[in-house]
Fold this sequence. Notes:
With 148 residues, the protein is an alpha+beta fold.
Amino acid sequence: MLFGMVALASLLADALSKALAQNFLQNQTVRLGWLAEFCLTRNSGMAFGMFSDHLLAGVVLPLTAILCGWRVMRHYRITRYTATACGLVAGGFTGNFAERLIFGYVRDMIFLPWMPWFICNVADILICFGVAALAFSLIFRPQDWQEK
């Protein structure tokens, strides 16, 4: 239940941010000093533009990642912490995956000048937070990894 609610909230936050970017960032950049810039771009690849214009890789690799994650997680007792982390990852993956299927690209709009190699969207941030939370739980929360 918690997993589904977090995944849905993540998906909706991503969809809303992309719709706002599409409506308000056409051919313009909004700067927040050295902290961030918002400008609409199209990413036909995946992380850091890898596999650009390879739709098959953009479909197969995310599905493989979700399948592997599901196979691993079904062997463990799901805590509220892991359900939240997995929900963030699943919601973010779903948002980007759906865009890739519909448009053939993903809309990115968040640029961090202090990380010049990285332009992202809300889904990417949610995936990163979810994966970081899972890594944290592997190291510091052994109760999250009790086998069923």
